[in-house]
Every structure is written in C-alpha cells, then in structure tokens.
From TrEMBL:
It comes from the Bacteria. GO terms for molecular function: oxidoreductase activity, acting on CH-OH group of donors. This is Glucose-1-dehydrogenase. Belongs to the short-chain dehydrogenases/reductases (SDR) family. SUPFAM superfamilies: NAD(P)-binding Rossmann-fold domains. It comes from Aureimonas glaciei. Pfam families: adh_short_C2. InterPro entries: NAD(P)-bd_dom_sf (IPR036291), Sc_DH/Rdtase_CS (IPR020904), SDR_fam (IPR002347). Keywords: Oxidoreductase.
C-alpha cells in the first residue's frame, strides 16, 4: 500500500496517457481508467511497469455511477488516494446548436460534467480531513473552447468546459478547509485522437497557421502542467486555472 495513489480518468490515450506515464515517474501508483480501448490502457500500464512503476488499468464510464465506484475501489486497493485527474472528456461531430439532439447533449454533459462531479465526490470522501483523510489535489481538464464558445461546431462541448471552469472555482472554495486543492488546466489545440473522434481529423493541421506559436501543443506539455498543479510544488494554488494553449484564447 502506498500513500501516493493517482487516478487519471481517460488515462489510456492522449493527455491522460501522458499524465499517467509522467505520474508514475513522479512515484505515484496509477489507476489508468479507460472507456473502451483496453489495448491502449494495457500499453500505458506496460510502459509504466517497464520502468519499475505501478499501475492498473480499470475500465469504466465516468458518466455511470457504478463504474465510478469501481474505479475508486481499484484505487483503494493500491493505497491512499492523493490525486484525482478529471481528464476523461469527449467531443462530438461538428454541428450547429439548432441541429443538436437531446441524446447528444445528454452524452456530452454526462461524461464531461457529471462524470467530473461524480469522480470529485468520491475523491473528496476519501481525501477530506474531516472524514479522516489526508487531503489531496483534484485537477480538472477544461478547454480554451470554454472561452471561445465553439460556434457552428461544438457549442455543447465548449459549454461543458465552461461548466468545468465554474466547478473548479466553486469546489475549490467548498473544500479549501478540507486540505484539498482544486485546480484546472486549460489546453488549447493539442495533438491527440480527440480531433479524429470529433470528426475533424485535419483540425490540428488546419488550425496550426493561425495559432500564436504556429504549432499545436503536445500531450506531454499538458501533462507536465497537470502534474505540477497536483504536486506539493503548487501548495499555494487552488481555484486556479492554468492555460496551456500556446497563447490561444489569450493573445490577440
Ligand atoms: P482523447 O485523445 O480523445 O482521449 C480520451 C480519453 O478519454 C481516452 O483515454 C478515452 O478512453 C477516455 N474516455 C472517453 N470517454 C470516457 C468515459 N465516458 N469514461 C472514461 N474515459 C473516457 O482526448 P484528449 O485530447 O487527450 O483530451 C483529454 C482531455 O483534455 C479532455 O477532457 C478534453 O476535453 C481536454 N482537452 C483536449 C484538447 C485537445 O486539443 N486535445 C484541448 C482542450 C481540452 P478510450 O481509450 O477507452 O476511448
């Protein structure tokens, strides 16, 4: 049993996978949650174990309460939960709001928003000083889309990330006395599979000339920010949202 357990939701690919691997290097025992891609999750676990780290892959949809309970039960078997990274998130095919179905909206908000709430609830119940916990850190994943709005393409996704911004600030205030810091990372355009699953495989290439740094970010660059916010190095940061966007949605 270790007192340094981290849960990374959506840890099988992209930003989550980079975070899981970096977390293991920092000495965390890692719960690598995934939705469906068992092979990708197993590859992350294998990479961690190959360098002497400790990790378990746990299937589960963060939008389903029973699955969330199973993810946290897996963490309990490793030791004391120190960090939750609410990373799992989805986009959908480009659409105007006028054409969005109820099913699409329910999926978007269930995974991106309710999933983050359910995972935070379970983390708080383990970390809170008043519940016998040792404190901890929760890092949420928002998006530059929360500032930009995603018109004509994914206002639903952008709004779900706007909810995460507010969730981060509100929860930080709510649990500051419980030894729990709550922060968020706000990525810009990052090279991951999410653009393929959102039906825009060329999005990164098309956006690149318009990005302030003329390049997309990498999953590792976002992971480093997540791990810093999770670490004792960030001991005086709570309620903070750190832009990792190469200046997107910040610079003119
Ligand atoms: P990604 O490459 O598409 O990977 C998504 C990960 O989330 C996968 O591990 C996937 O598991 C998992 N996942 C999907 N739905 C899930 C669910 N219901 N329950 C549990 N896990 C689930 O995504 P990414 O680009 O790394 O994005 C990670 C986070 O950063 C998201 O919250 C996203 O909104 C945010 N973000 C990304 C960008 C960007 O440009 N990439 C920009 C801003 C914000 P499987 O492998 O099993 O499918």
């Amino acid at each position: 049993m270790t007192d340094k357990v981290i849960i990374v939701t959506g840890g099988s690919r992209g930003i989550g996978a980079a975070t899981a691997i970096l977390a293991a290097k920092a000495g965390y025992a890692v719960v690598v949650n995934y939705a469906a891609n068992a092979e990708a999750a197993a590859a992350v676990v294998a990479e961690i174990e190959a360098t002497g780290g400790r990790a378990v892959a746990v299937a589960g949809d963060v939008g389903v309460e029973a699955d969330v309970m199973a993810i946290f039960a897996a963490a309990d078997r490793l030791g004391t939960l120190a960090v939750l990274v609410n990373n799992a998130g989805v986009v959908d095919l480009p659409s105007s709001v006028a054409d969005m179905s109820e099913a699409r909206l329910e999926r978007m908000f269930r995974i991106n928003v309710i999933g983050s709430f359910l995972c935070a609830r379970e983390a708080i119940n383990r970390m809170a000083l008043s519940k016998g916990g040792k404190g901890g850190a929760i890092v949420n994943l928002t998006s530059a889309a929360a500032k930009l709005g995603g018109p004509g393409q994914f206002v639903d996704y952008a709004a779900s990330k706007g909810a995460i911004d507010t969730f981060t600030v509100g929860l930080a205030k709510e649990v500051v006395g419980e030894g729990i810091r709550v922060t968020a990372v706000r990525p810009g355009i990052i090279e991951t599979d999410i653009h393929v699953s959102g039906g825009t495989p060329d999005r990164v290439a098309e956006m690149t000339p318009n990005l302030p740094m003329k390049r997309p970010g990498t999953a590792e660059e976002v992971a480093k920010a997540i791990l810093w916010l999770a670490s004792p190095e960030a001991s005086y940061s709570t309620g903070a949202i750190l832009d990792v966007s190469g200046g997107r949605a910040i610079l003119p």
